Amino acid sequence: MLIEVVDVTAVPGLHTNCYLVADEETRQAVVIDPGGSPEAVVARIQALRLVVRWILNTHGHFDHIAGNGGVQSAVGADIAAHRASEPLYRARGGAGFFGIFLPAPAMPTHWLEDGDEIHFGNEVLTVLHTPGHTPGCVTFWSQRHSVAFDGDLLFRAGVGRTDLPGGDFEQLLESIRSRILTLPDETVIYPGHGPETTVGEERRHNPFLQDSTRNWWV
To answer: Which residues pair with 158 in a beta bridge?
Structure first.
């Protein structure tokens, strides 16, 4: 599996990790969270000679979906997100919460559910519904390669914010407990912002997961 990160910006100063994930044999690929800078994303797709089958969104915040339309126009792929994200797309990804005006994003052409599988070439990503940051947050997990793309759920030494409409801190922690910490420790987490980490690293050292009364790691 080929994994490449493209640093994209929906607005100046707000950086999001956009991931190009490809089957190295067939060059079929998915784009995860093109939150801006569609020209840069398309340039890397072309440089790597990828055939994009899907544009996948981990959730509907504007800094993860703002580049959907530009990338879709260039590569012709379908857009997929969890069904519970639809209100955020209708609200332009929540950009108005920050006083930011952005054009209406390209809407998903397919709505995802927990357990769905995304196939591209010889690769497959399983959809894990992981709400909390927003109701429609999902993680895209490759069991074969022990990697997970979790958007704004779990970061290195941090977790996603839950103070925006639809956020729920206890639900976010439950998603981490039941869907992420149950994965093998060597699973690499590719988050929506910042550097990659592993399940084991966060289990042992993430300060948000160290409340011993929850007993999560038993």
So the answer is: 155
Domains of the chain: 2-98+112-214 (3.60.15.10)
Residues in the chain: 218
Question: Is residue 140 within 8 Å of 149, Cβ to Cβ?
Answer: yes
Burial label, 200 (beta-carbon count in 10 A; 0-12, 13-18, 19+)? middle
Residue with tokens 């100063």: 13
Whether the pLDDT of residue 218 is over 60: the answer is: no
Sheet of strand 188-191: strand arrangement = 117-120, 123-129, 138-142, 147-151, 188-191, 197-198
Model's pTM, two decimal places? 0.94
Tens digit of each residue's pLDDT (9 = 90 or more) over 19-28: 999 999 999 9
Name the nearest CA neighbour of 182 among 199, 207, 163. 199
Separation between Cα atoms, residue 185 and residue 167, nearest integer Å: 27
